[in-house]
Amino acid sequence: MVSFLEDRPKNMGAGQNVISDAKSVLNMSITVTVSAQKPPAPPGYIPISRKKLLQNLEINAGGRINAWVDSMRASSPTHIKSTPSLTDDQSSWNLQHPSALEMFEQIIDASKGKQIVMFLDYDGTLSPIVEDPDRAFMSKKMRKTVRKLAKCFPTAIVSGRCRDKVYKFVKLAELYYAGSHGMDIKGPEKRSKSNKDTESVLFQPASEFLPMIDEVYKQLVETTKSTPGAKVENNKFCLSVHFRCVDEKKWTELAQQVRSVLKEYPKLRLTQGRKVLEIRPTIKWDKGKALEFLLESLGFANCTDVFPVYIGDDRTDEDAFKILRDRGQGFGILVSKFPKDTSASYSLQEPDEVMDFLRRLVEWKQLSVRAQSRM
């Protein structure tokens, strides 16, 4: 097992060790049960329960392919039409999940006296959703903002993408990266006395599944090549089948192709994101567990003075939102222009609003530091 030897960032205060044994953290994380209460749904809004969605996506339960396709449509908010009914529903939803920008002062008040720790999804949060997942580039302004953020608060990128690919997009060595839905975690690189880079944090709880993932990847590439627009992405410890560029008339065909491969692999499970089917090992690990693991490695396992903030736009981010709601610490922010069933407390509409929110956090922190220096 890998031990954590990362020093706690200076702005987090002294007196707490960060060294954590990965095995004990893994056991701690796996035994956590999520029993968070969701906020009530707004009137007229029909939520799609995650449990029902996953039941629809069961690989070996003999479910109808149509259920898969229905779930694929449910993940595509662009199907929602602008109608008076939607306007009413969205207004009600916004009351339940107000804008994090409009509620910024209240958020800051709740965080006073506590250490803010930032967790950020990548696609749809720091970068716009694009047709070609290989071109989901972060803007220079966003990168500059995230760099400043990391100087003020411990910051982690938590993505379904391969960790190396996310790093190539973000290009900031001072961050924590949790790729493959948290199954591949790496901490900031530190310089040793010999001036060589060292990896102080590295944790991969699904390493044994690598051969299987590679095998399934090759099969899916071969099986889906007859479906125009389908793209299979190897995220190292999980796979993504993108159907954003697939004609909706071909979704049933694509679902049948994916199922024909996965039915031979009971140790893999299927979940759904925005215009993407996610294939992951059946271990009890997700973005929520990754969040807890990172808090533990930073020395915040049982602290009451920590304030985690998680910003994400996808169904897989709900695992982290639920963990925060269950802990009663910090909050989640959902990035979405449309009403969704969520455990997040606040909302932002798009990456530009995320950048504005992060900038305000940085400005607030800088002003606080200056005010304290004058005392």
Automatic annotation (TrEMBL):
<dbReference type="InterPro" id="IPR006379">
    <property type="entry name" value="HAD-SF_hydro_IIB"/>
</dbReference>
<dbReference type="InterPro" id="IPR036412">
    <property type="entry name" value="HAD-like_sf"/>
</dbReference>
<dbReference type="GO" id="GO:0004805">
    <property type="term" value="F:trehalose-phosphatase activity"/>
</dbReference>
<comment type="similarity">
    <text>Belongs to the trehalose phosphatase family.</text>
</comment>
<dbReference type="GO" id="GO:0005992">
    <property type="term" value="P:trehalose biosynthetic process"/>
</dbReference>
<comment type="pathway">
    <text>Glycan biosynthesis; trehalose biosynthesis.</text>
</comment>
<keyword id="KW-0378">Hydrolase</keyword>
<protein>
    <recommendedName>
        <fullName>Trehalose 6-phosphate phosphatase</fullName>
        <ecNumber>3.1.3.12</ecNumber>
    </recommendedName>
</protein>
<comment type="function">
    <text>Removes the phosphate from trehalose 6-phosphate to produce free trehalose. Trehalose accumulation in plant may improve abiotic stress tolerance.</text>
</comment>
<dbReference type="Pfam" id="PF02358">
    <property type="entry name" value="Trehalose_PPase"/>
</dbReference>
<dbReference type="InterPro" id="IPR044651">
    <property type="entry name" value="OTSB-like"/>
</dbReference>
<keyword id="KW-0346">Stress response</keyword>
<dbReference type="InterPro" id="IPR023214">
    <property type="entry name" value="HAD_sf"/>
</dbReference>
<dbReference type="InterPro" id="IPR003337">
    <property type="entry name" value="Trehalose_PPase"/>
</dbReference>
